[in-house]
Design goal:
hydrolase, about 20% helix, 8-oxo-7,8-dihydroguanosine triphosphate pyrophosphatase activity, magnesium, 7 strands, Nucleoside Triphosphate Pyrophosphohydrolase, alpha+beta, Pyrimidine (Deoxy)nucleoside triphosphate diphosphatase, seven-stranded mixed beta sheet, 8-oxo-dGDP phosphatase activity
């Protein structure tokens, strides 16, 4: 079975987290997620996340703490989603593969229609950073 490593950013700003809605052309269209993308061969997870955030949103991110990994079985592949805390970024967010974004209180994130692999990431974030 093929496995794919993907990274996701839990981007913080003023006590809120950034959620992005997958556009109509995406797999899992319409679901909310933490932005990110695939890790390329020979690339570290933080480097992949910084690259993906630059490509997808036009920002230069400060990748900080590893949070958690979730696994999702999809037909003939296993997706391993690695969540990272991003404490800040430079630039203005421009959407390339998302239809909208929202800044959300961490406690409210589970009320959104999240992509399944993102649910364990918000659970880990809440357990570690929200008391």
């Amino acid at each position: 079975m093929k496995s794919i490593d993907v990274v996701a950013a839990l981007i913080e700003r003023e006590g809120k987290l950034l959620l992005a809605r997958r556009d109509a052309s995406s797999d899992q269209a319409g679901l909310w997620e933490f932005p990110g993308g695939k890790v390329e061969a020979g690339e570290s997870q933080p480097a992949a996340l910084a690259r993906e955030l630059h490509e997808e949103m036009g920002i230069a991110a400060t990748v900080e703490d590893f949070l958690a990994t979730s696994e999702l079985q999809q037909s003939s592949r296993l997706i391993r989603l690695h969540g990272w805390r991003v404490s800040g970024f430079a630039g203005t967010i421009t959407l390339q593969c998302h239809s909208e974004i929202r800044w959300v209180s961490p406690a409210d994130v589970p009320s959104f229609d999240l992509a399944p692999a993102d649910i364990p990431l918000i659970e880990a974030y809440l357990a570690k950073f929200v008391s």
